[in-house]
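FAQ

Q: What does a record look like?
A: Structure on top, sequence underneath. For example:
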């Protein structure tokens, strides 16, 4: 009777231990599966940046990159995406605005909502914030431009082309932006669309600093007869009033 009792107790403990081991194995596979998914995702993202070249992108889907190519911020479309991030980072420093825009344009719609994502090149270049519970780090050795800047002629493109530490110095228009101003010089007086020739407005810069517009929104000034004044500013006095 005692042997049967102890055998039953031992069997119960064995079943409990077996069940505990099974639970831990199941838990391990759940955690392992989640980590594997993150690992493969991070590997895929790194492959995208390190293997795909800019000229292989469908630029109709990447408005920021298309603009960067158009205004000269991206000079070599044969660079991989990661090489271009390095170039921006080396030219503009730790908080490179062009590198951030570039990465954001590439990754939009690619990163699942539950994941955070960042790119670090001697300092954090881009980050999609998310509370971190598991961190998967992937690395690649890539070549961009040397931190010793290769000086070029400065152009108005948001990049320090001549490597003097100042972006777009000496090439901005009178409004402080890029592009040729076809209107008048900022702050000079101007005549609006009315019929008189009086300059009652001033040339102001538009919001994007690419041109100027005249702020004269006054009404028409008519000539007043026999007052001896050129009321409508056309260079003649009392014209159209008839002879004496």
């Amino acid at each position: 009777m005692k042997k049967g009792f102890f055998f039953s107790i031992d069997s119960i403990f064995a079943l409990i231990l077996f069940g505990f081991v099974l639970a831990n194995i199941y838990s391990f596979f759940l955690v392992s599966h989640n980590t594997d998914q993150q690992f493969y995702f991070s590997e895929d993202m790194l492959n995208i940046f390190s293997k795909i070249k800019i000229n292989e992108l469908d630029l109709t889907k990447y408005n920021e990159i298309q603009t960067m190519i158009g205004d000269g911020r991206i000079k070599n479309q044969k660079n991989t995406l990661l090489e271009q991030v390095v170039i921006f980072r080396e030219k503009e420093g730790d908080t490179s605005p062009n590198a951030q825009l570039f990465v954001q344009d590439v990754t939009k719609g690619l990163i699942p909502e539950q994941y955070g994502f960042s790119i670090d090149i001697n300092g954090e270049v881009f980050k999609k914030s998310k509370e971190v519970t598991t961190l998967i780090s992937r690395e690649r050795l890539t070549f961009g431009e040397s931190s010793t800047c290769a000086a070029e002629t400065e152009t108005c493109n948001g990049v320090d082309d001549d490597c003097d530490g100042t972006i777009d110095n000496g090439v901005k228009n009178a409004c402080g932006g890029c592009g040729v101003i076809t209107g008048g010089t900022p702050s000079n007086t101007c005549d609006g669309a009315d019929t008189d020739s009086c300059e009652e407005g001033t040339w102001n810069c538009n919001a994007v600093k690419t041109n100027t517009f005249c702020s004269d929104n006054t009404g028409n000034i008519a000539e007043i007869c026999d007052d001896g004044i050129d009321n409508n500013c056309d260079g003649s006095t009392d014209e159209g009033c008839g002879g004496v």
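Q: Is there anything notable about this one?
A: The chain has four helices and five strands.
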